[in-house]
Amino acid sequence: MMNGDLLTTLNFQSLLQFHEAHPASATMCVREYEYQVPYGVIESHGHHITSMVEKPLQRFLLMRAFIF
């Protein structure tokens, strides 16, 4: 399953072979991509801040391509 507006050079046969070779309910495709968030980011639980990271670096982006 994948988004209809996704342009990709993904090898679907290799993806299916990978999925069948590993015991998982689903396989999600990700693309390695670094993105520097330009602001500090917090995580919270209710009204309590549990962590704060200044300008974190994000490393992966979901491609919206899955096999179930």
Automatic annotation (TrEMBL):
Domain Nucleotidyl transferase residue range list: 2-58
Record protein name field: Nucleotidyl transferase domain-containing protein
Species of the source: Vreelandella sulfidaeris
